[in-house]
Amino acid sequence: MRRQRTRFSSARATRGLAAADLSAGMLRETKVLHLRRAVAASFFFATVSLSLLVLFGDLNSRRFFSTFHYSYSLSSIFPSVYNDPVATSNEYPLEKVLNDAAMKDRTVILTTLNEAWAAPDSIIDLFLESFRIGDRTRSFLNHLVIIALDQKAFARCQVIHIHCFCLVSEETDFREEAYFMTPRYLMMMWRRIDFLRSVLEMGYNFVFTDADVMWFRNPFPHFHVDADFQIACDHFTGRFDDVNNKPNGGFNFVKSNNRSIEFYKFWYSSRETYPGYHDQDVLNFIKAHPFITYIGLKMRFLDTSNFGGFCEPSRDLNHVCTMHANCCFGLDSKLHDLRIMLQDWKHYLSLPPSLKKLSVVSWRVPQKCSLDSLRPHDAPERSPEE
């Protein structure tokens, strides 16, 4: 009798386990089915959303996406730097970005970028190309930090470069081309000066370069060893310490010390003394100010034979380090002449050494960047009252 009960209990237990296995199997199948449906729904949503993006345009579609909060987002299925929240926000603080890019002596190369100059085949691509085709300049890309002034510029930077920082706030989002001397242009220029001051306070030396400055050779051997602040010129008089030089804020090398920090604070505060002027004009007004002598700042001006531009080109390609698309108005004009400049440089590089020494090649620019409308260098310098 006991054996019968034991066999009966064993059979019942076996049936119970089988039922449990069947129930567990059905539960797993149900979960898989739900997961498949969820994935299918996510792909369906992504496909419909992508169609809406094309149909209604980028701006309206992004507003459409922002109203939904699904666990399966479009960016997780179709990755895009413009839809990825990580790609449009700083992953690291400025200190880490600068530290990663810095040379052994804590020097970094900085440029700023907005959406207008960040588009494919625009200024930033020509800028980076100049480093790649320059004479031993490619390695400087490891020390270049691109400071994006809007989210789209930051997203593009992350695609094309390794060191990027997004300098964006509600009142300073410079997406569009900032036309010369407009309020947007002035705000962008002064925001740049204040940011550079903060870099100095963090203990970093920097070479600041506009993105429309082409790098063809290593500039460091041509910098003045004893200078705290040295800057390129629209016009160079021939003397490195002559305050009658016409400096251009698009290219300068600054060492981090108390003198340079105080100078940048003074420069930035002088925007209130000379309202309506951009940083370069104000620098012209204050370059001989007694305060600069008081703080002991050593200011030097860079020779245009090495650091030229459309205002005053470096005529000998054997000595040129950088060329700036200054004295030029309008993005299309800059792009046209910068492309020709890069072609001229490539042609120079293709020459045999004997022809290079003869300086048989020179720039074919400026062309569209006409200098006809510019004031002659010997005309009186504009005063704040004019």
From TrEMBL:
Enzyme kind, highest EC tier: transferase
Keyword Transferase included in the entry's annotation: yes
Pfam families: Nucleotid_trans
Subcellular location as annotated: Golgi apparatus membrane
GO-annotated cellular components: Golgi membrane
Any GO molecular function: glycosyltransferase activity
Gene Ontology biological process terms from the UniProt entry: cell wall organization
Annotated transmembrane regions: 38-57
Key words of the record: Cell wall biogenesis/degradation, Glycosyltransferase, Golgi apparatus, Membrane, Signal-anchor, Transferase, Transmembrane, Transmembrane helix
Superkingdom, natural source: Eukaryota
Enzyme Commission number: 2.4.2.-
Membrane disposition: Single-pass type II membrane protein
InterPro entries reported for this sequence: At1g28695/At4g15970-like (IPR044821), Nucl-diP-sugar_transferase (IPR005069), Nucleotide-diphossugar_trans (IPR029044)
Record bears the keyword Transmembrane: yes
Domain called Nucleotide-diphospho-sugar transferase: residue spans: 140-338
Family: Belongs to the glycosyltransferase 77 family.
Protein's name in the database: Glycosyltransferase
Organism, as annotated: Vigna angularis var. angularis
